[in-house]
């Protein structure tokens, strides 16, 4: 029994580490998962090109699906990804969504994508790769577009399908969400409350900028990329970093790309992804 699925990365409007509310938008870079189920009863995972990667998340995704819809199967799960791992671009949510959909495909189980997304969130909590469960990131990746969520209740509050141009800057370093200074993030909850209101009003650009300045201060990251994007574009730290994303007109982002690409790391232009994760 073989299944294959792909899910997109995402950028942040509101990081949920302050007040439990989050907002994220899918972008056009993907992780693909292939799942082969057998009678071994044990699940093994591999990340293509990353022999030392932590595979517990994708293994747990397969196990959670088998516990609900299977009959004790084991097998192998492999991911191939265009998304840099632990860089703030929701690599974990994309890997979980792809692994869950690929397993459901292999099992022949048919459930809606929001329910499938919740299985990945549960697996992420079990694997210890998330603080809040990251239903914001997971829902954006699974459904596409931009979502606003309550991560404490795993509830989808709003979803839109904007067609934004997006500039991404990813420094060479890596930063795991589970290592973020959560107590400092909680101190900025009054700022996150403003971002939450703006996001629910559909004021995503202003929301991103307020989020970016507040979380750069809390997580001791530079706000320079955000200042450089303003006033023509909007930008934020993505997740707990180290990546930043900016949204705006294509020509403005092309000019900003020349500034951002003077830093070490990768700067790339992309767009929002509106259709979300798919079985291949
Ligand atoms: N392609 C992948 N295949 C398998 N597991 C992955 C993959 N990408 C990420 N992961 C898992 O997710 C963990 C990284 O999660 P983390 O939340 O720190 O990064 P992120 O999702 O990129 O960041 P953020 O949540 O700030 O956007 C990895 O240690 C690994 O367990
Ligand atoms: O681990 C988590 O709970 C999160 C990590 C970051 O991606 C945040 O952007 C997200 O809102 C929540």
TrEMBL record:
EC number(s) given by UniProt: 2.7.1.71
UniProt keyword list: Amino-acid biosynthesis, Aromatic amino acid biosynthesis, ATP-binding, Cytoplasm, Kinase, Nucleotide-binding, Transferase
Gene3D superfamilies the record matches: 3.30.230.10
Primary residence: cytoplasm
Gene Ontology cellular component list: cytoplasm
Annotated pathway: Metabolic intermediate biosynthesis; chorismate biosynthesis; chorismate from D-erythrose 4-phosphate and phosphoenolpyruvate: step 5/7
Matching Pfam families: GHMP_kinases_N
MF terms (GO), sorted A to Z: ATP binding; shikimate kinase activity
Positions with a binding annotation for ATP: 84-94
Superkingdom of source: Archaea
Reactions mediated catalytically: shikimate + ATP = 3-phosphoshikimate + ADP + H(+)
Record-annotated GHMP kinase N-terminal domain positions: 57-145
InterPro entries: GHMP_kinase_N_dom, Ribosomal_Su5_D2-typ_SF, Ribsml_uS5_D2-typ_fold_subgr, SK_arc
Cell compartments where the protein resides: Cytoplasm
Gene Ontology annotations of biological process type: amino acid biosynthetic process; aromatic amino acid family biosynthetic process; chorismate biosynthetic process
Protein family (similarity comment): Belongs to the GHMP kinase family. Archaeal shikimate kinase subfamily.
Name of the featured protein: Shikimate kinase
